[in-house]
Amino acid sequence: MAEGLGALLEPAAIRLAETATDRDAAIRRCGEVLVEVGAVAPAYVAAMLDREQSVSTYVGEGVAIPHGTLAGKETVLRDALAVLRFPDGVDWGGQPVTVCVAIAARGDGHVEVLGELAQILLDPDRAAALRAATDQATVYDLLTPIEETA
Amino acid sequence: MANIKGSDIQKVVVACDAGMGSSVMLASQLRRQLKKHRVTVEHTPVNSIPADADVVVCHAGLVARARGSAPDKVIVPVQVFIGDPAVARLVKAVETGGELDG
């Protein structure tokens, strides 16, 4: 599964020392990184801002998952993720956000990784580790889907 | 408002705008929780809820669109994507076979 994660989440798409003055600025940074790694066309960034206007993508534990709208899907070139960490935090409609997992998806390639992210958010220790991650290896370790043992 | 018995729930659809982010995460949680009850969990855009869905789970802000797209379904609105009490009620209804409104 690590191979699958590597294809979705390039090292270049992990940025662990970002700053943003507000939520929209953070979303723009997320979008710019997805553009830089060739996952989306620049128009996708506007779709991400639209999506946030309708319903917040805050998912708990200081994590948000900005992504585009249905209309914006046409500007997705390939399934990809980006992880941006804002050590100073960003005010996300009243919630402090430290980590953004930005999503570009046409298919279901990212489903397992998001499932793993959901598991992380249910585990305060792993969520804290994600918020504190300062190297890429830690991010990969946390987001690599674990085989279910139960 | 519709209602369904938990024992009649076979397919749960988690809907969001693009079917790309939040719904995917919530669906993965529900799939884990409902696996042993043989309930299918899918995630779709809110505008294309499949006809064979028994229950639709979506963000409270998307309920009107979900109802427009699936007028006869039980709709479970959620406020948060992880650990929402509405989701816990759905899981309980499946486990006990009790009634679920929405």
UniProtKB/TrEMBL annotation, chain A:
Coiled-coil blocks: none
PROSITE patterns in the cross-refs: PTS_EIIA_TYPE_2, PTS_EIIA_TYPE_2_HIS
GO molecular function: kinase activity; protein-phosphocysteine-sugar phosphotransferase activity
GO-annotated biological processes: phosphoenolpyruvate-dependent sugar phosphotransferase system
SUPFAM superfamilies from the UniProt entry: Phoshotransferase/anion transport protein
Record's keyword terms, sorted: Kinase, Phosphoprotein, Phosphotransferase system, Sugar transport, Transferase, Transport
The PTS EIIA type-2 domain, residue ranges: 7-146
GO cellular component: plasma membrane
Domain of life: Bacteria
Transcription regulation in keyword set: no
Function: The phosphoenolpyruvate-dependent sugar phosphotransferase system (sugar PTS), a major carbohydrate active transport system, catalyzes the phosphorylation of incoming sugar substrates concomitantly with their translocation across the cell membrane. The enzyme II CmtAB PTS system is involved in D-mannitol transport.
Name listed for the protein in its UniProt record: Mannitol-specific phosphotransferase enzyme IIA component
Species this chain originates from: Asanoa ishikariensis
